[in-house]
Amino acid sequence: MYQIAIDRSLCSGFGSCAELAPDVFEVDDGGLATVRVGRSDDPAVLEAAAACPMAAIQVIEVEAA
Amino acid sequence: MKDPTFWILARASGLTAYALMTGAVLAGLVLKSRPFGRALKAASVTDVHRFLSLLALGAVAVHGTALVLDSTVKIAPSALLVPGLAPYRPIWTGFGVVSAELAALIFLSFSLRRKIGAKAWRKLHWATYAVFAAATVHGLRAGTDSAHLWAFALYLAAVGSVVFATAWRALTRTQRPTTQGGTRVPDRDRSLAL
């Protein structure tokens, strides 16, 4: 299970995360990425975090509740 | 006869830096406007963009060091930092100094993006166009090899590709959906988005 956080002060709205893991990330009307769900076991979140050009996504592996 | 090693190295590293910088700019534009869609991974393009930027700065460092070590043109270390101090074509070499310093600042700004904020980082990143323009003018007017057809072709190809990629970016800017729901971000909010 992964815990996901976005540093919105760094997000520049590239949208790569929402493309790679649309169940977890979305781009809001202001053009910045938001987290739809704070936790996910979708490995695509790792890809999304790596793809962020601003390195604004933090993913922490946590124990499943 | 003087050893021409450093003189040749200075010219070669200058052209190499320019080619690498052009590659870095193009990778940045590919990252922004995604002309190849999902065929190219954003993470890989980001890596290429940063790596080419670092290599270009490395080549610039070799360029400056070789010019100081060479005796064909007397260049003091201070002339690498202060534009206009070089006795050889001071205006055009000055363009090179300004370009290199601005490029280094933009490169370093990525590490400082938390401190300066993403908005300031984005604004500063626009200065990359000034870096590219200044480097082009510097190369064309101060470069020993610029009179050769092959060198001119290099500059022409570099400027042409950056202009083309920028035009692509400008033309596709409003057409790119930013959410999977299909809502588009209003233009006013994206005016500064890199």
Please explain how this structure is put together:
The complex is a heterodimer of chains A (65) and B (194). Chain A is of the alpha+beta class and 65 residues long. Chain A has a single domain, classed as Alpha-Beta Plaits, CATH 3.30.70. Chain A contains two helices and five strands. Chain A has helices at 16-20, 44-51; strands at 2-6, 25-27, 33-35, 39-40, 57-61. A three-stranded antiparallel sheet of chain A has the order 4-1-5, covered by helices on one side. Chain A has a two-stranded antiparallel ribbon with strand order 2-3. In chain A, a hairpin with a 5-residue loop joins strand 2 (25-27) and strand 3 (33-35). The longest helix of chain A has 8 residues, at 44-51. The mean pLDDT of chain A is 90. With 194 residues, chain B is mainly alpha-helical. Chain B has one domain. In chain B, 69% of the residues lie in helices and 0% in strands. In chain B, helix 3 packs antiparallel against helix 6 (128-142). Chain B is globular, with a radius of gyration of 19 Å. The N and C termini of chain B lie far apart (51 Å). Mean pLDDT of chain B is 88; it is low at 175-193. Chains A and B meet through helix 1 and helix 2 of A and helix 2 and helix 5 of B.
